[in-house]
Write a structure and sequence with these properties.
heterodimer, A: alpha+beta, Glutaredoxin, 3 helices, 4 strands, globular, B: alpha/beta, Rossmann fold, 5 helices, 6 strands
């Protein structure tokens, strides 16, 4: 099972777009094989501290190891999959 | 086409850190020493990205954010702050009012500034836990 977290500002336009793009990608490529936890940094800043998050949105692939993380626009599916080690 | 970035921060050392980090990236970086100056700059010119300090004398980051959004609804604005409830709580009202922004943690190294800026402007980039 692929486990991911995405850190966002839940109400922001770019975070909403990032969530939408990531979920669409995961459904297309890994339907039924992943879990995605959405964390709002404004609500749970302590989790962002524990995960040493630097910006929103940030995506972390927690499992399978090794951990991978990406920041920035998630529009380029190739870059996202390569960055998360899911190619 | 050259992408233009505006850094709004009252701390000269922070403004300089962004200028120095991004000077070889091809991005054109301008700075403003207050929210008021930043608003004047956005009234005169379009930017591709704005980094905005949360804690400033005069207009603070949240007040400046609201003014900037009146001028440009689409430019990505990253609020630069510590990720702690004492600071993030001040942003909840703006978020609830559907004022659009993202977050950038401070302080950041030069490499972190470059990596994150490229990720925002040119597509996803890889980072590492607490890099570097």
């Amino acid at each position: 099972m692929i486990q991911l977290r995405i850190y966002v500002v839940d109400d922001s336009k770019s975070s909403a777009k990032a969530i939408q793009e990531l979920e669409a990608l995961l459904e297309d490529k890994f339907s039924g094989q992943y879990s995605l936890k959405i964390i709002d940094v404004l609500v749970e800043p302590e989790l962002a501290e524990v995960d040493r998050i630097l910006t929103t949105p940030t995506v972390i692939k927690v499992a399978p190891e090794p951990e991978k993380r990406i920041v920035g626009s998630l529009g380029d599916r190739g870059k996202v999959l390569a960055g998360l080690g899911l190619v | 086409m050259t992408k233009h970035i505006l850094v709004i921060d009252d701390e000269p050392s922070i403004r300089k850190s962004f200028l120095t980090a991004l000077e070889d990236t091809g991005y054109l970086v301008e700075t403003a020493e207050s929210g008021e100056v930043g608003i004047e700059k956005l009234e005169r010119k379009k930017y591709d990205l704005i980094f905005l300090d949360l804690n400033m004398p005069g207009l603070d980051g949240v007040e400046t954010l609201r003014e900037l959004r009146e001028i440009d609804k689409d430019v990505p604005i990253y609020i630069v702050t510590a990720f702690h409830a004492a600071f993030t709580d001040r942003l909840k009202t703006a978020a609830a009012d559907k004022i659009d922004f993202e977050l950038l943690k401070k302080p950041l190294s030069s490499d972190q500034i470059v990596s994150i800026t490229k990720g925002i402007l040119d597509g996803a980039t890889i980072t590492y836990r607490g890099m570097p």
